[in-house]
Every structure is written in structure tokens, then in C-alpha cells.
Amino acid sequence: MKKQILIIGAGFGGMWSALSSTRLLDMHGRNDVEVTVLAPEAVLGVRPRYYEQDVHQMQSPLGPLFDAVGVNFIKGMAQAIDVAGKKVSYTDAHGANASINYDKLVLATGSRVVRPGSVPGVEHAFDVDLMAEATRLEQHIKALAQQPESAMRNTVVIAGGGFTGIETATEMPARLRAALGADAPIKVIIVDRGEKVGAALGQNISPSIIEATETLGVEWVVNASVAAVDANGVTLADGRRIDARTVVWTVGVRASSLTEQIPGERDAYGRLHVDRNLKVIGQNDIFATGDTAYAATDDEGHYALMTCQHAIALGRSAGNNVAADLLGEAPTPYSQAKYVTCLDLGAWGAVYTEGWDRQVKLIKEEAKQLKQQINSVWIYPPVAERAAALAAADPMIPVVA
């Protein structure tokens, strides 16, 4: 009977884990180990692009890729992890309960935006976290033209001025004008707790954010937070009111709740502490990757962020090392010393930085061209051809997206 490497999740971390573990097994000529991915769909949702319009196009099928490299796929939703029994229970494609045993497990179930229960009416807000929610927002924006003309209809509030909030806000003027007309008197407002514009991304990148948002007419309400949401707008913590038919929530990310079923230390975002090989500390047979892993990127005190940039490299490392662990081979410690940021700023362009201190290297059109290359090519899966796909999963390949 074949041994089983089970990977839960088919996002960036899960997909690359499957390819990388298959690559190492292939290198050692082992056909006595099966690599299985358990996920609701054999589809990679290109989540970093969900702030854009035409969101239904932001996905890539994984079935042909998995078939080409010999990865087994199970369509289902993981429900429970029995660590002692080395078994995962799930709901299958028909809604029935099922389970699968594993020899080694990789948790790659990602993260979610968490809407705080302390904010009344937060259910009225949209988000761009999952395909279904991003699609709901897109349908809502397109339907605004059917509502009576008003300032409220033409106003969008973005709750949160971090990376996702800024990209969503700076793309929004073009999306609103496409729906309401080129001359529509639109208003896009970012509400952020930071004391200055773009504070979450640091002082080096802030000038580009300021210039871009001013050019695009995107307003900031800083040193503020949303205290309540309703169908007609938001109320801020200081009592101010902003009327808006559209509110987009972009703050409060937390790792998948399945991390809570694995004994181990977790960080403030719910991510499991892992060693440099991405094995969950205190567990012999469980690895974590992507947004479920609190992983050191280097020896300088930096840790992976919840980004696809880190998830791709984490996936390659986790897959390689879970297979190495099963085979008794030496692992390849995870390392990702280079960190870059490429922030989309709508029609103004983009800003590209390098290093954890975000040293600006490109702005406007040059950076925009790079961002489009990242979004449309670099982060997509490899071609569904065995040799090329496995070669692309080498954990030593640097990731710069």
C-alpha cells in the first residue's frame, strides 16, 4: 500500500507543495508514495487580483496540471484533523462525510478576512477576499446604475488603508466610471487607523501613495475607524457619518481555523509556528505552509507575510521537505531573503520597492508594467507538462513576485 502525503488546500501554498513533493519523489524514483490534494475545487484562485474587475477570469484550472504530474485530487472540504490517528475528515463533492489517512500532512488552507462581531452591521460590507465575495461586489457595482442618481450611490468607502485597501481604492474610480459613466461625480474614501496616508506601508512608499490617490481623487480619513456599517454607509468611532451604498472591508486577516486543530503555538494571526523546514513545532508528521505558517524568512528576524510572494516559496519548500522527511532525505531549509513590494495604484500606475524598508525602485508606468507582468504571468501555475512543471517547483528558485 502506498504511503500518503496529504496536502489540504489548492491555493499557492498547496499547489506548489504538491508539485515540489512530487518533484523530489520523482528525483528519487519513488512510486510507492502518493501525493494527494484535498480542496473544494481543483482551481487556483488568483486572489491577489480580486480587487480588479472581471474577477471571474482571475482563476486557473489545476486538473490538467495535477494529471500531468500525477497528483491525486480529492474534491472536498476538510472538516477535522485527527492528529493522533493521522486522519482528515471531510465533506465530499456530494455532501457526504468521508475521511482519508495520511503519513505526512501539509496544511495549506490559507487565510480569511475576518469581519469583527464588535462592528454592528458589518455584514452589509463587501470584500475582495474570496472569489464569491469579489464577484458579489462586481455585480453590485454594475447594478449601481439602476439606482437613482445620488451622492450616496456614487460613494464607496474602503475600510482599511493597507495593501489590499489601497489597491481596491485606487482601482475603484475606473470601475465606478465604467458602471456610472465617465462624467459621474464619484467619491472613493479610505478610512484608516494610521495617523498618516499610507502609514501601513512605511514612509518610503507613502509619497507615491499620496500622489496617486490625490491624482485619482481618492480621499483619506486617517486616524479613524469604522464603528458601524449599514446599507447606507458607515459610522466612524468618533461619531462622524459617511453615506455610501458601497462599503468594502479589507482589514482583519486570520489564518484558517484548521490551524486550531493542530497542537502547537500560534501567532496573533493564528499561524502555526514552524521550524526552518516548515514542520510544525512539536509535531512529527505535520507541515504548514502559506498563510497558515509563521515562518522565519532569514536570520535577521523577518517572517513571511500573508502574500502570494511568500506562499509560492513556502509551498515549494514545504512540499520538498515533507517528501524528504518521508524518504529520510536531507531537507532544504526555507529561506527567502529578498522581499519586494509592487503596489498597484490604478490609473496612476504602481510603485515597486525592494527590501523590508521598502526602497522605491520604480514608479508610475514602469512599475505598472512590472505589476501587470506579475499579475498576469509570474504568479500563475506552470504549464501542464510534467518535466517543466516539476522543474518549476524547485525550492531553490528565487521568488521575486
UniProtKB/TrEMBL annotation:
<keyword id="KW-0560">Oxidoreductase</keyword>
<comment type="similarity">
    <text>Belongs to the NADH dehydrogenase family.</text>
</comment>
<dbReference type="InterPro" id="IPR023753">
    <property type="entry name" value="FAD/NAD-binding_dom"/>
</dbReference>
<dbReference type="InterPro" id="IPR045024">
    <property type="entry name" value="NDH-2"/>
</dbReference>
<keyword id="KW-0274">FAD</keyword>
<keyword id="KW-0520">NAD</keyword>
<keyword id="KW-0285">Flavoprotein</keyword>
<protein>
    <submittedName>
        <fullName>NADH dehydrogenase</fullName>
    </submittedName>
</protein>
<dbReference type="Pfam" id="PF07992">
    <property type="entry name" value="Pyr_redox_2"/>
</dbReference>
<feature type="domain" description="FAD/NAD(P)-binding">
    <location>
        <begin position="4"/>
        <end position="313"/>
    </location>
</feature>
<dbReference type="GO" id="GO:0003954">
    <property type="term" value="F:NADH dehydrogenase activity"/>
</dbReference>
<dbReference type="InterPro" id="IPR036188">
    <property type="entry name" value="FAD/NAD-bd_sf"/>
</dbReference>
